[in-house]
Amino acid sequence: MNKKFWALLGLASGILLVTSVGIAGLNPGTGITQTSHDLSSATGRGALWDAGTAADPVLDRICIYCHAAHNTITSTEATAAGVTYYPLWNHDLTSLTYTTYQNTTTGDIPGEIKHQLNADIGQPGSISKLCLSCHDGSVGVSSYGNFAGGVSSSKHTGTVTTTGTRFGIGVGGDLSNHHPIGFDYGAVQAVDLEIRDASSPLLGNNPYGMTIADILWGGKIECASCHDVHNTQNTGARFLWVEDTNSNLCFSCHAK
Questions:
Q1: Which candidate, 184, 180, 175, 249, places its Cα nearest to that of 217?
Q2: Residue 160 and residue 144: Cα distance in Å, rounded?
Q3: DSSP 3-state helix, strand, coil percentages of the chain (rounded to 5)?
Q4: Long-range contacts of 207-212 (CB under 8 A, 24+ apart)
Q5: Is 187 exposed, middle or buried (0-12, 13-18, 19+ CB in 10 A)?
Q6: What's the rounded Cα separation, in Å, for the pair 91 and 71?
Q7: pLDDT digits (tens, 9 = 90+) for 151-175
């Protein structure tokens, strides 16, 4: 009886452990492991982007595609790429100039709500350029490693990009049909009665009590204003800060 009990308990524990490992990262807020941003070969996604090199074969690493502890991008290299935020950045940076979203095709009319965004939107900010360096298709996803001192034999210079896949955003520098980024949220909110104040909390399941201000970057809407790229504090799928059920993500900013 006892032996059967402990055997069943052990089996149940094993199943629970395997199951918990299997779903880790797949659910919002559970970390980067096994998400689309986990490019290690263990997930099966790494092989899509990284064939490795003779000096540096494919390893089961997750962080290396974006960050490294040593020999990452220097301030000089970041400045040349127009980037001011580069957290131990280890990936080649996009050099594209983007065609941005425009609300109308009839020009800017100062003070008119339906036109005013056109005058304020700029190029993507630094945090967005980091995202676009993989997603706009101009740089190989496995183009990473060994900055600050020249190219070494172990630097990955991948040729496989997101172009033509569902992961492509801003391909060819075209952001004209994507939600605008790189604009000052306060400037828009000041003239548009259907934009919520930045102190407003995000709607839906928001256990961290996050406000709009918490997801702005230098007061601007950027890629990371909708997406938690590490999948650690979000409650929505696809790295969304909150799930878009009933358009809660949209309505967090848009008072429609």
A1: 184
A2: 13
A3: 30, 5, 60
A4: 207/235, 208/233, 210/241, 212/185, 212/252, 212/253
A5: middle
A6: 11
A7: 455 678 889 999 999 999 999 999 9
From residue 87, alpha-carbon distances to 68, 78, 192 in Å are 9, 11, 34
**Three-state SS at 62:** coil
59-90 exposure pattern, b = at least 16 Cβ within 10 A, e = fewer: eeebebbbebeeebbeeebbeebebeebeebb
Q: What is the DSSP letter of 89?
A: B
Residue whose structure tokens are 């790494």: 46
68-90 pLDDT, tens digit each: 998 899 999 899 999 999 999 99
Partners of residue 156 on adjacent β-strands: 144
Q: Domain boundaries in the chain? A: 49-167
Element holding 131 (H helix, E strand):
helix 126-135
Please, what's the b/e burial string for 115-137 (b: 16 or more CB within 10 A of its CB; e: otherwise)?
Answer: bbbbebbeebbbbbbbbbbbbbb
Q: Which of 200, 203, 198 is nearest to 235 (CA)?
A: 203
User: CB–CB of 33/49 below 8 Å?
Assistant: no
Does an H or E element contain 20, and which?
A: helix 2-23
SS (H, E, C) 138-158: CCCCCCECCCCCCCCCCCECC
- Supply 72's token pair: 């990452």
- Do residues 153 and 62 make contact, with C-beta atoms less than 8 angstroms apart? no
